[in-house]
Design brief:
The chain is built from 9 helices and no strands. It has 193 residues and is mostly helical. Helix 1 runs antiparallel to helix 2 and helix 5 runs antiparallel to helix 6. The chain is globular, with a radius of gyration of 20 Å.
Length: 193
């Protein structure tokens, strides 16, 4: 079996287990073992998988309340600009570490960076609509609003929620335009036949 495929599957399983609150260490160890046979120093897929494994370990440590381990695991990868989804996961995790340490201002500043990356990752950027539901992006917007309230900044909380509404509205408009465009193309094709 291809070690990249084995590592990718193990990391996906670990991510699902993390979301469910289960122990993911065995799956991450499987991923790490698969990746040991590959040069992971580069910016390719192997390097990305190593970074995901580290951040998932950081998230698991955060859930256990091991803030120093979480902070180390969640730090921003060197090639974060190449991997924006990984960057948002890292920044969000780091913000949550700062929140648990009682440093709400640092958490807000870090999360603001994550939100700017989320905003830049529009449906146009990846050629597909992104729905906001239980996702890292939606959770980060909600966390930013909570942090603003914890910092007694209700205005910033409202602005964050308005920003979220704006993102949803823009993506809804894009989806309706795409659907209308597809409907028109289908009508033209049927008429031509």
């Amino acid at each position: 079996e291809d070690p990249l495929v084995r590592a990718n599957l193990a990391i996906n399983l670990a991510f699902a287990k993390l979301r469910l609150g289960h122990d993911l260490r065995e799956d991450l160890n499987t991923a790490d073992q698969a990746l040991t046979v590959i040069d992971v120093a580069g910016t390719g897929r192997a390097g990305l998988l190593v970074a995901w494994s580290r951040i998932l370990r950081g998230r698991a440590a955060l859930l256990r309340g091991e803030l120093d381990l979480a902070s180390a695991g969640c730090r921003l990868p060197n090639r974060a600009n190449s991997w924006p989804h990984l960057a948002t996961e890292s920044l969000s995790c780091t913000a949550q570490v700062e929140r648990q340490r009682g440093n709400v201002r640092a958490a807000r500043a870090t999360l603001a960076r994550a939100l700017s990356v989320h905003t830049a990752l529009s449906g146009d950027a990846i050629a597909q609509p992104i729905t906001l539901g239980p996702s890292r992006r939606a959770e980060d917007f909600y966390l930013a609003a909570e942090l603003a309230l914890e910092d007694c900044d209700a205005e910033a909380a409202w602005e964050t929620l308005e920003d979220l509404d704006g993102v949803v509205a823009i993506e809804g408009y894009r989806a309706s335009c795409s659907s209308a465009s597809n409907d028109q193309a289908n009508r033209q094709r049927v008429t031509a036949e």
